[in-house]
């Protein structure tokens, strides 16, 4: 049952040097820089996104993800979900409007995997960058790099993915779109969606809490993914794997690293999900094919390089 959570809203990523990070997120991936605040944080967005920002970069001593936020329908939904989160057993922190530039009040909680999430209802609307909403052109002519269209999802590693599944499905209204199960039928990976997408958030079972695997950005075509591979080589960017296809979600993908060691993905395509769809299941003995459909074997770095 849907609870009023609409979509991923933003992710705050820790980087070791924000100016170096901008060469990655702005100049290479092609996000648009929208603002900076008095804490030194930088705000960016994909050009098709209507809200002011979807990525926040914060300079810190170690890389990783501070939190991921989801946008809800309105303030009434936000208040209802606050109560539902408390009833589930989460400690909820109130963060005032304006703490993030252009964003309304947020409520923050920690999932059983140790990751911090937040919900918000209001954010400044800036519209699709460079084209607007009235008689829009097909795309802005001055986009940079890979020309990413939007922040799409995060993949996170943590220990208690079962309780986190209960939190996201029972309290927040997400559906299980895809999963990987072990021989006993236990989920070791879960791909959760609150939309028609194959996933808006995904979790992999891992002994440590609060590990960040990647933030993912959407491109339009397979040709764009191949072009992203060219740009990765042109800029001597550290690559993880690809271009290739996933078995899970069937998206066409490439993975690479920012200068701080945080992994990024750009992808296109992928499956869709409606609420009446049964979850797609992969068995753990086919995990290589599930993750890298063409190679059919795991890249150890993909499983162990976390921030």
Question: Can you put this structure into words, describing what you see?
Answer:
With 307 residues, this protein is α/β, with parallel strands linked by helices. Helices cover 19% and strands 35% of the residues. The protein is built from six helices and 17 strands. It has helices at residues 18-28, 75-88, 161-171, 222-234, 287-291, 300-304, and strands at 5-15, 32-36, 42-45, 55-59, 64-72, 93-95, 106-110, 116-120, 150-158, 175-181, 187-193, 201-205, 211-218, 239-245, 252-257, 263-268, 280-283. The strands form two sheets. It has a nine-stranded mixed β-sheet. An eight-stranded mixed β-sheet has the order 2-3-4-1-5-8-7-6. β15 (252-257) and β16 form a beta hairpin. It is globular, with a radius of gyration of 18 Å. It starts with a strand and ends with a helix. Pfam families: Diox-like_N, Glyoxalase. Belongs to the extradiol ring-cleavage dioxygenase family.
